[in-house]
């Protein structure tokens, strides 16, 4: 592993030095050259440290006084307009969702009403004897045939109750 790392570093140093270094220069010579470069840079930094203190080690790119200042008003304006746009979108989405919900509820109400009316009509047909079943003749009157004797105690059917409930809601 260290041999491949060493060969990569040697290749980089040779490339940095350009064509002035022949390929016959040994790795030991390259190592000495790199050590000399590091030593020179350290001496320069030490001299600067003696004169400037810690600023000698800080990159000079950070304190570029010619760099343009941040336009805070512009950025604040952009952020505010983006926030307003997002709020408008959220309001529109909420309104659309509410309209869809109301439409769905109205459709369900219409379907319930239609089912209730259908059930009430079926109940009326059943009571009147027109539901498609064969009619009874007078001699076939059975125990379950309604004769009207208890008309004052008439109970409402589930279908009629459902129809009344839907009519009251609508």
Give an account of the 3D structure.
It is a single chain. The protein is mainly alpha-helical and 170 residues long. It has two domains: 8-56; 72-128 and 155-169. The chain has helices at residues 2-17, 27-52, 72-128, 158-169. The longest helix is centred in the middle third of the chain and has 57 residues, at 72-128. It contains four helices and no strands.
The separation of the N and C termini measures 83 Å
Calculate the mean pLDDT score and round it. Answer: 79
What structural class is derived from the secondary structure elements? mainly alpha
Number of domains: 2
Helix content: 55-70%
Shape: elongated
Radius of gyration: 47 Å
Q: What is the H/E order? A: HHHH
Unreliable stretches covering 5 or more consecutive residues: none
Q: Main sheet, how many strands, which sense, barrel? A: none
Strand content: under 5%
How many helical stretches?
4
Q: What is the strand tally?
A: 0
Which helices and strands, and how do they pair?
Elements: H1 2-17, H2 27-52, H3 72-128, H4 158-169
Region (Disordered): 98-159
Biased composition (Basic and acidic residues): 100-126, 137-159
Biased composition (Basic residues): 127-136
At a glance:
This protein has 170 residues and is mainly α.
Name its key features.
single chain; 170 residues; 65% helix; 0% strand; elongated
